[in-house]
Amino acid sequence: MTPGSSEAAPAPASPRVTAISWGRVEVEGADHPFRDVKLFPGGAREWDWNETGTHHRPGVQPADLEELLERGATTVVLSRGMLKQLRVPSSTREWLEDQGVELHVLETDEAVDRYNELRESAAVGALIHSTC
Q1: Could you read off the pLDDT of 100-116 as tens digits, one per residue?
Q2: What is the three-class DSSP state of 46?
Q3: For residue 111, which of 128, 93, 92 has the smallest C-alpha distance?
Q4: Lower CB count within 10 Å: N or C terminus of the chain?
């Protein structure tokens, strides 16, 4: 931003997922693979379900997503797992809608493809579940 300019700096790019397989997500710039991963503009970290008490049922909670929004995501991709066992309850979908966030909920391989596509043009975050 130049002095006197009111334009905000663009959000940093979200890292690209370079490989996905059962129990393993590889992310550009990460020094190790993840089992489940939180992706957001400017970085990635392990998605530890124990932090918020997440389970396959009822599924992804707003508490799992707050960090993505805090880090600038305006679009979110949620993977339901390779076998689509992870749920995304209507309360979570409604919460994201109330935040003005565009949501994509897909099977894991499809979620990774969509995320990698969106990261080229949007401030995107994702929760990627690499197993069931």
Answers
A1: 999 999 999 999 999 99
A2: strand
A3: 128
A4: N
